Amino acid sequence: MNIFKIIQDIEKVDGEVYDRLASRRQAFSSFGSFGKKVALAAVPIAMGSMFKKAYGQSSNGIADVLNYALTLEYLEADFYMQGLAASGAIASENRAFFEDVRDHEVAHVAFLKSALTSLGATPVDKPTFDFSAGGAFPDWNSNPQTYLALSQAFEDTGVRAYKGQAANLVGSNEVLTAALQIHAVEARHAAIVRRIRGLKGWITNDERGAGMPVPTQAVYDGEAETMQAGIDVAAVSGVAAASVTEAFDEPLSKEAVLNIASLFIA
């Protein structure tokens, strides 16, 4: 979850959001032009100021969207914090990698909380998470293989969820460029987790991969697609269908992401 998806979700709450903020290009050009190097701490202040001008302090809809994003970031950050705190969840050779991922998620949480505060809204409290998913993963914090499997599921979900919003950003070259920059890094994270598990860095058909528990299948449903923009890529390329599905990663809907995340909220 990130600023670009948040903006798109706000547009669903208020279809006139861009009119309130002036034009898309004008409202977000600053993010595109200096966002590559801007300090994370400055972004919530800028975003809060922008929304205050557009909505004032009374927009419950925007606060709801930001708090939804914060809840998802709480889940990811907590997963990595608890995993690193557990004695048997993470193999020593993978610890440095997961420390980096934890720091990324903690930064996302701090960003969203600051953004909500700048709007005069109250950030939601962190939910109680059950990463065993009601007992489906009883050894998630004591078995490195189970922990890696869940990390793969969370990371693959994040990549597909982010991609699901990309088409909605084509109206602004600046925002789309920045979004693709972020998306590329998120995809690399997912690929690293998959490679640690001895898998390909990409998804074949709708296969969750060796060692992935059955409850994670929802993360991979819909990936066995060979039709792209109305073109049967397998037919026109002569490439095997399985390889075509690897060449194109599919988006995941917001509803599907929510269903997956809800499994881990107590």
From TrEMBL:
**Gene3D superfamilies according to UniProt:** 1.20.1260.10
One Pfam family cited in the UniProt record for this chain: Ferritin_2
Q: Which domain of life is it from?
A: Bacteria
Q: Which InterPro entries match?
A: Ferritin-like, Ferritin-like_SF
Output the CDD domains linked to this UniProt entry.
Ferritin_like
Query: What is the protein name given in its UniProt record?
Result: Ferritin-like domain-containing protein
Source organism (scientific name): Pontibacter saemangeumensis
Q: What is the lineage of its organism?
A: Bacteria, Pseudomonadati, Bacteroidota, Cytophagia, Cytophagales
